[in-house]
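Bug #77: duplicate submission created two jobs. Keeping one. Sequence:
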Amino acid sequence: MHRLLPRPALSAVIFLLWAALSNAATLGTVLLGALLALALPFVTRPFWSDAPRLARPGRLFILALRVAIDIVLANLSVARRVIGPVSRLQPAFIEVPLDLRDPFVATILSSIVSLTPGTVSIDVDQERWVLLIHALDAPDSDALIEEIKQRYEAPLKEIFAC
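Kept job's structure:
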């Protein structure tokens, strides 16, 4: 089954998107959507890394909730800082040393950091295992590093057992 559908979820999403966007339920449209849903995962296979196994999937919901709350709070914080005197901002490039060693999980961490307003991930150095970020306001870079490691990296390591 894995040979026919290397990424079944991706195939299903492609087919459903094709059906939603095509505005026609003809046999030809459905067959073309099915062909795309089967072919595109094969064509893109070299670009997909193998996702690690979820060791504690229940913690994923807790992390998602934490990230959602942090996004809202960070939006308020960034708005307050931007409305105030810009001269008080202390932007910085910060290197966060990573304890995890999985490229997929490092990419998830990088995405979480970028989703949280006020910080943007720039690079994941997989040779040194360092996440380079830019922070809009980082008067204490060590505190920001510790916050990222405790709030996001530690739960990701637990969820994916890496």
